[in-house]
């Protein structure tokens, strides 16, 4: 969950200038710090969660309900698809979000990566060496 952190302008520029599934006021606010021209302000940062950028909470999901997802991929979680109900559930119930997040972190911690001769350190994470 993108409840804490920031994104670079280059990662959200297309969403705030060219997409319709975004709140107009939110898009204009983000545009003030992210010029439309590629190469201009590419490294400017914006918070992923505009309301509570430094607090781990469920505000990210209420932002999605209001079409204030900074990244295209985030807003796709609430855009008329199969994940809409989960976004609504987390937006209305912080305890459910927190409990599910704990379970997910435990599961990720239980993943046993391949090591030694059984695994590899990839030079490019998208491709097998």
Salient structural properties:
two-stranded antiparallel sheet; mainly alpha; 42% helix; 129 residues; single chain; Peroxidase, domain 2
Structure, explained:
The chain is mostly helical. It has a single domain, classed as Peroxidase, domain 2 (Orthogonal Bundle). It has 6 helices and 2 strands. It has helices at residues 9-18, 24-31, 59-65, 72-75, 84-92, 94-109; strands at residues 6-8, 45-47. The chain has a two-stranded antiparallel ribbon with strand order 1-2. The longest helix is centred in the C-terminal third of the chain and has 16 residues, at 94-109. It is globular. 22% of the residues are buried.
Number of domains: 1
Structural class: mainly alpha
- The tally of strands reads 2
| DSSP helical segment count | 6
Specify the CATH architecture. Orthogonal Bundle
Q: Order of strands side by side in the largest beta sheet? A: 1-2
How large is the radius of gyration? 17 Å
Distance between the termini: 30 Å
In short:
This is Plant heme peroxidase family profile domain-containing protein. Belongs to the peroxidase family. This protein has helices at 9-18, 24-31, 59-65, 72-75, 84-92, 94-109; strands at residues 6-8, 45-47.
Task: Tell me the layout of helices and strands.
Layout: E1 6-8, H1 9-18, H2 24-31, E2 45-47, H3 59-65, H4 72-75, H5 84-92, H6 94-109
Antiparallel strand pairs: 1-2
Helix pairs in contact: 1-2, 3-5, 5-6
């Amino acid at each position: 969950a993108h409840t804490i952190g920031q994104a670079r302008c280059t990662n959200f520029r297309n969403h705030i200038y060219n997409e319709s599934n975004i709140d107009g006021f939110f898009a204009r606010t983000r545009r003030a710090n992210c010029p439309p021209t590629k190469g201009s302000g590419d490294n400017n940062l914006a918070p992923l969660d505009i309301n509570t950028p430094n607090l781990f909470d469920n505000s990210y999901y209420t932002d999605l309900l209001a079409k204030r997802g900074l990244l295209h991929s985030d807003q796709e979680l609430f855009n008329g698809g199969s994940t809409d109900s989960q976004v609504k559930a987390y937006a209305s119930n912080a305890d459910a979000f927190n409990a599910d997040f704990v379970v997910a972190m435990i599961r990720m911690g239980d993943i046993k990566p391949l090591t030694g001769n059984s695994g590899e350190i990839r030079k490019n994470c998208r491709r097998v060496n």
